[in-house]
Every structure is written in structure tokens, then in C-alpha cells.
Amino acid sequence: MTNADITAVFDRVADLLEFTEANPFRIRAYRSAARTISSMIESLASLRENSTRTFTDIEGIGTDLSHKIEVLLETGSLPLLEELEASVPPGVFAIMRVPGLGPKKAKILFEKLQIESLESLENACREGRVATVRGFGEKTQQSILDNMAFAKSDQHQRLLWEDADGIMQDVLAYMKKSFAARTVEGAGSWRRGCETVGDLDLVVESDDPTTVMNHFAEWNGTTVVLLRGDTKMSIRGPRETQIDLRVVTHDSFGCALQYFTGSKEHNVLLRSRAREHNLTLNEYGVFDGFQASETSVPEKMSVNVIHAEKGKWIAGRTEEDVYKAIGLPWIPSEMREGRSEITLAEEGRLPRLVELSDVRGDLHMHTTATDGENTLEEMVQAAIERKLEYIAITDHGQRVTMARGLNAKRLLNQWGEIDRLNDSLSKHGKPAIVVLKGIEVDMLEKGGLDLPDNVLEQADWVVASLHYGQSQPREKITSRILEAISNPHVSVIGHPTGRLINRRQAYDVDMLTVIQSAAKYGTFLEINANPWRLDLNDIHAAAAQKAGVKLVISTDAHSTQGLRQMRHGILQARRASLASEDIANTRPLSELRTIMKKRTRIQ
DNA sequence: GCCGTTTTCGGCCCGACTGTTTTCAGTCG
């Protein structure tokens, strides 16, 4: 069983436990363990065989879950899961896809009306039977019918960050036009720079929530208002995306932004930490004591204070204030995943994360010589306009026949063109840009590369990628990649796992071994900035950095527009807690060449 | 089900909104 299999089992157990009135903290324990395991780079199976560590050394795994992992690795199944599957009717999970129906209501509907599919639920609503059940009413019945089409649709894939960003920029620009809105910020997984985004979150500072919410309702992207209270409102917007708005006062803005940025796990840790300091943290502020009196809350907060907190208000205007109040420096939003960021912050070891402006070169792109849309000259011109100091032209090698991949003759011709281009660029002193002679070679199905070493040795930069035979077994794929890593002419492994977000799984590769080998040979690993790829992902990139591997963030641009995708790779690198010094293409070209020479000395 | 220098038992983050109640449970984030 792989880590992904065990993650799936624990998540499934948690889902099923929701129906059994189990202790919610027990459910949380399964979810938390699943999350931790899914973000481990080392497989549990190999940890069991090779390591001196035991499963209980893993945060959130105690004796019970440790034993269950043993059973899973040994037998491939878990008795608890089988018991639960037998006791929970299949089909209730479909019912929970209706907004507003959770495990409790789904269970009641099954027990009272024997409903276990969306179809039987729809019929029961049309016949008025749902409204007769205690705890349900006419409004709930109508709401279920209204949401039936949404629940039946399987178009609920999370948006790519790039697509979410398009919607976010539109709605931010629109909300900033509201005269009642003093500050408008996007939060949630968009602000954390996640690969994909489920819904969008907006936080607005204002003393006049009604006006702000009216403005929101009138946005031309709003298709339906899902709910609306005094300070909180949700709409469905473009591409069926839910957009949540919270309106808060000046004194609460930092806390609200922090809270709605998440992640949930980060917030739980932060609030626990606040309690340890005898403080309470919520979206309105940091308060002295667990429970205190209503009187000392600032008057400006009166709108929000009805249910609330009572203690002395200490902080909340900015995120910096909030973190400071609980004894921490501000933590960049991309790091807030509840992994190790709070410990790093505590110990003053937060890295200065890499920024787009640190990037000096782009080392993976295509031209019309293969499957690019723009010529060599156009790509170079676009790179100059983006103020890059160097680029590598890396068209496909000959194996990629669909892209008219280059054989040795055509490649050498292209390199001749690049030589002439560099000459003309440097005719009047220091060139605006240096163009490296590169190639994206293919790691062949049977092993080896699709161009010979005597050609590759003439290259400035070689990307090795795997495009064919992606369904080969783990050992075979891994050995193809290890062979390329040890090839002295290969500079970097391109999109090392091959996954396409929402479209194609990563091929099965032993990433721990790949990383260790890349560290040994000084071969770089790529963070491919294409928004469908983002490959390596944050977990792998962080593990690579820890192992001493240098990373390269590349656009893999197939057009001049594609060069703009660098920002996605930067976000991914920031999620991996990477600093500028971890990224090879933030170096001046002379330094990059030095790092590359170091690796040839290892041979 | 996990965790621990106040604890091996008794905690575990916190609040808005809705619909259904007649004071609150369920859902969601």
C-alpha cells in the first residue's frame, strides 16, 4: 500500500465515522493523520522496513493509528473500514453534495424516508415528503430542489489558480469601486497560492456592511445570492464559483484577513497557541483571557460584539499585530499550511521567500522549430521585454514526433542561429540578453536519451523530460530518470512527475530516490511553472531543497505569452518555503555557470 | 484518537447563518 492508499483509507474512515455519531475529535484524528501521511515524501512501507523511526514518531499518529498502518501494510485492508462500509448505506455521500445537507441530515433522510440517491431525494421533495420530517420544513425542501442541478453536476472541479485569479481580479476591482469599502483584500486558498482554488474569499473593511453587500449583489458576475446576514454574504459567480464576502471593522481587519486566509490547520494551531498564552483569537481580534467581559471591547466593534468575546481587546488591525500578539513574526500566506511554519516562526527561522523580481533567467521554452507558437527571435524579444538576463531555448528532441522534435542536424542548425543572434546582440557592447543553446531531450521508454552524448556535450543547457511510457511500473520509470540524472550532460530534470492538475495523474516514481540521486550528481530539478503542471509540487520541492538539491523555476513557454507563467512557479516555490538562494535561475549567468561546473567535478 | 513540565484523564479553535425551533442543531468555513 502506498501513502496515497493509506491516506484514502483514513479519509474514508473519517467520512464514514461522520454518520456514526462518533467523537468529532476522533474523526479529526483520522483526517489529520491522512493529511500528514499525504504530505510525507518517504513511503510508510519503506519507513517500516528501513528506518529506526516508528510510526508513532509521526505527529498525530499514536499507538492505535500506528497499529492500523501496520495492519494495512500487512494485509492491504482494515477491519474497521469494512465494518463501517457495511453499516453506512451507500448513496448517502451523493446526498451530501447538496449544499446545506451534511451527515446528520443525510442520515435522517435515509432512516425516515429510505432516501439514498439524488433521484429518490428529488422525488421525495416533489411529493412534499421531505417537509414532513422533523427538523425539515418547506424552505429546506425547496432549497434542496433549487440546488439539485448543482448537486447532480459533476463540474465541481476546483479551479486552477490561474483561472481563480482571473475571477478574483475582476471582483476585487469591482468591490474597490464601492465608496463604503475602505480596504478590499482577497483571502483563502487564492491568497495562499494553492495549485487549485475551491471558492473565493473576500474581506472588506467598512463601517457600512449593508452598502458593501448591496454593491456585491449587483456585481454583473453574481448569478445568485446564496446567503446573506449582517456581515457575511455568499454568492455564486462566474464558472459556478462560490464567492464569500465578510465585512469587518477597522479594528478587526487584520484578524479577519488572517482568519479567512487560513488554512484551517494553520488557524487551529494559531488559536491553540493563543490559548496557551491565555489569549483568545477569533476573526475579530486577539483578546486577553479565554472569557472576559463585554465592556472593554472597542466601541467600533459593537456591530460584531453581540455574541462575542468579552475580554480586553489587544490586537487585530493588521496581520502583523495579530501574530505579534501571540509572540510570532508575520508568516507569509503561502506557508500557512499547518506544517512547520509556526515552529520556524517561533525560532526566528522563517526564510525570506523567493519573489518574482529575483528571477534572472528562464531555462525552458519552445519555438516554432518544434511545437512553439513564436519564432526564436520573437521569444528572445519577449524575454528582453521581461528584463530577463538569459534564457535557454529548449525545443523538443526527436522522440517527440508529434511536435516535430529536432534531430541532431536540425538542432545544430538552430544552435548556429543562436550563435549568430548572440553575436548581433553583443555587437554594441554588453548584450541585452544571453541566449543559451539548449534542448529538451526525451528519456526513452527503454532507457537512454533521444540525442547522443556527442551532440549534448555541445549544449549550454539540457533539460531531460519523460513524455512517453508514462504508465510503466515504478521501478522502470525511476530507473529511466536516475539514468538521466547521472548523465553528465543533463542539467535539469523537466516536470519530474508528469502530472497535469485535474487531468492526469503523476507517473509512479520513487521521488525520494530521485531527490537523493539529484543531490548526489548535482543535477537540478525543475519547478515547471505551467499552471497545469506546477511540477515539482510544494512537498517534493521542499524535500528536494532539504536534501541539498538546487531547483530551477521554468515557464516551459510555448509562446511569448507563456513567459508570463513564471509567477505560478514562484508561488509554488514559496509554498515550498524556498528562498532565492535555493533557486538556480535567480543567479547571474556567471554564477549559474559556476554551479553547473561544480556538478561536472563530481563525475 | 492524540497528547502531556500544571494533566496518563480531560481537554481538543471559533463564529455566522439558516431553518426550525420555542432555545438550538446543523452546516459551513
Folded structure, characterized:
This protein has 603 residues and is an alpha/beta fold. The protein folds into five domains: 3-87, DNA polymerase, domain 1; 92-152, 5' to 3' exonuclease, C-terminal subdomain (DNA polymerase, domain 1, Orthogonal Bundle), CATH 1.10.150.20; 159-248, Beta Polymerase, domain 2 (2-Layer Sandwich); 253-346, Beta Polymerase, domain 3 (2-Layer Sandwich); 356-602, Alpha-Beta Barrel (TIM Barrel), CATH 3.20.20. It contains 25 helices and 17 strands. A seven-stranded parallel β-sheet has the order 11-12-13-14-15-16-17. The protein has a five-stranded mixed β-sheet with strand order 2-4-7-6-5, with helices on both faces. A three-stranded antiparallel β-sheet has the order 8-9-10. Helix 21 packs parallel to helix 22 (511-521) and helix 23 crosses helix 24. It is globular. The two termini are 36 Å apart. The model is unreliable at 291-309 (pLDDT under 50). It binds one DNA strand of 29 nucleotides through residues 23-30, 32-33, 59-65, 99-105, 134-137, 139-140, 143, 188, 199, 201, 227-232, 234, 244, 246, 259-260, 262, 264, 267-272, 274-275, 280-284, 307-308.
Uncertain segments are: 291-309
> Which strand order spans the largest sheet, edge to edge or round the barrel?
11-12-13-14-15-16-17
End-to-end distance:
36 Å
Overall domain count? 5
What is the CATH topology descriptor of the largest domain?
Answer: TIM Barrel
Estimate what percentage of residues fall within beta strands. 5-15%
CATH class of the largest domain: Alpha Beta
Number-wise, the strands total 17
Return the CATH architecture of the largest domain.
Answer: Alpha-Beta Barrel
* CATH homologous superfamily grouping of the largest domain: Metal-dependent hydrolases
Count the DSSP helices. Answer: 25
Shape descriptor: globular
Helix share of residues? 40-55%
Radius of gyration: 27 Å
